[in-house]
From TrEMBL:
<dbReference type="GO" id="GO:0005506">
    <property type="term" value="F:iron ion binding"/>
</dbReference>
<dbReference type="Pfam" id="PF13442">
    <property type="entry name" value="Cytochrome_CBB3"/>
</dbReference>
<keyword id="KW-0472">Membrane</keyword>
<keyword id="KW-0408">Iron</keyword>
<feature type="binding site" description="axial binding residue">
    <location>
        <position position="166"/>
    </location>
    <ligand>
        <name>heme c 2</name>
    </ligand>
</feature>
<dbReference type="InterPro" id="IPR050597">
    <property type="entry name" value="Cytochrome_c_Oxidase_Subunit"/>
</dbReference>
<feature type="binding site" description="covalent">
    <location>
        <position position="64"/>
    </location>
    <ligand>
        <name>heme c 1</name>
    </ligand>
</feature>
<dbReference type="InterPro" id="IPR009056">
    <property type="entry name" value="Cyt_c-like_dom"/>
</dbReference>
<feature type="domain" description="Cytochrome c">
    <location>
        <begin position="149"/>
        <end position="227"/>
    </location>
</feature>
<feature type="signal peptide">
    <location>
        <begin position="1"/>
        <end position="31"/>
    </location>
</feature>
<keyword id="KW-0349">Heme</keyword>
<dbReference type="GO" id="GO:0005886">
    <property type="term" value="C:plasma membrane"/>
</dbReference>
<keyword id="KW-1003">Cell membrane</keyword>
<feature type="domain" description="Cytochrome c">
    <location>
        <begin position="51"/>
        <end position="130"/>
    </location>
</feature>
<dbReference type="InterPro" id="IPR009152">
    <property type="entry name" value="bc1_cytC-su"/>
</dbReference>
<dbReference type="GO" id="GO:0020037">
    <property type="term" value="F:heme binding"/>
</dbReference>
<protein>
    <recommendedName>
        <fullName>Cytochrome bc1 complex cytochrome c subunit</fullName>
        <ecNumber>7.1.1.8</ecNumber>
    </recommendedName>
</protein>
Length: 269
């Protein structure tokens, strides 16, 4: 019986089979790594949405303690936050005023550094230290049901309590020592309410005894009305009040009178 002599050469399909096995193995490893990588952000997102008061304490100590102290007791660089309440934390953090970009007469608004969940967790921790103003309920932020009469009443309340700093049109204004009242256009309802409730920086506090929640909602409705109707009285001249109006009269009013006078006197007799 004849026997096949070994040649020592591979089968022609061996290289192809090895290549296919390698590709399958590499693909499986890549899919496994991708699954693990995608699972980590998902777990992190779930954790972010379920932050606890203790998480808020850790966030605060990692980002705010340099100025406000490890237990929010305050330092020479920042005030005590004990008793300011969750509403103050939400306003300062979610408008980007805190942490401050740099030391100055007042904190400036910018994009927030924290998520809403992180801000809520820090606010809950601050609220656990001592009683303070709570974040407003959604019913006081919903202005869709405020009537025209309510909007008009909000305008009256705004002019009585706010216009001396923020301008009749909510355009803002200068204060002393480099401070200013910011413009109030296109601001989130929660931040308007929290500002009235907590009195940030140079602003006085308007608690519920001064301005009731219903009235705060009417003020918010009035400001949102101004967002949609920025110049209900005609050309607003920058909404800067008597400053721009006076310049307009001097430049165009008196300038026009001078021009007419020159034209009249230049006519031959």
């Amino acid at each position: 019986m004849a026997t096949r002599k070994k040649t020592g050469r591979r089968h022609p399909l061996a290289s192809t089979a090895l290549l296919l096995i390698g590709l399958v193995a590499a693909g499986g490893a890549s899919a496994a790594v991708g699954t693990i990588a995608n699972a980590a952000p998902a777990a992190e997102s779930a954790h972010t949405q379920a932050l606890t008061v203790q998480d808020g304490a850790e966030l605060f100590r990692a980002n705010c303690a340099t100025c406000h102290g490890m237990n929010a007791e305050g330092t020479e660089h920042g005030t005590s936050l004990i008793g300011v309440g969750a509403a103050s934390v939400n306003f300062q953090v979610m408008t980007g005023r805190m942490p401050m970009a740099f030391q100055g007469p007042q904190a400036l608004e910018r994009d927030p550094m924290f998520t809403q969940e992180q801000s809520d967790a820090m606010g809950d921790w601050i609220a656990s230290l001592a009683p303070g103003p709570e974040r407003p309920a959604e019913e006081w932020l919903d202005t869709s049901q405020v009537s025209d009469e309510g909007i008009a009443n909000g305008g009256v309340l705004f002019r009585i309590n706010c216009a001396m700093c923020h301008n009749l049109a909510g355009a803002g204004g200068a204060l002393t020592e480099g401070k200013f009242a910011p413009p109030l256009g296109d601001i989130d309802a929660a931040h308007i309410y929290e500002a009235m409730l907590t009195g940030p920086q140079n602003m006085p506090v308007f608690n519920d005894a001064n301005i009731a929640p219903e009235q705060k909602r009417e003020i918010i409705a009035y400001l949102h009305y101004l967002d949609d109707n920025p110049s209900v009285g005609g050309f607003d001249l920058g909404a800067l009040g008597p400053v721009s109006e006076g310049l307009f009269i001097w430049i165009f009013g008196l300038g026009g009178l001078v021009a007419v006078t020159v034209w009249l006197t230049s006519k031959p007799n």
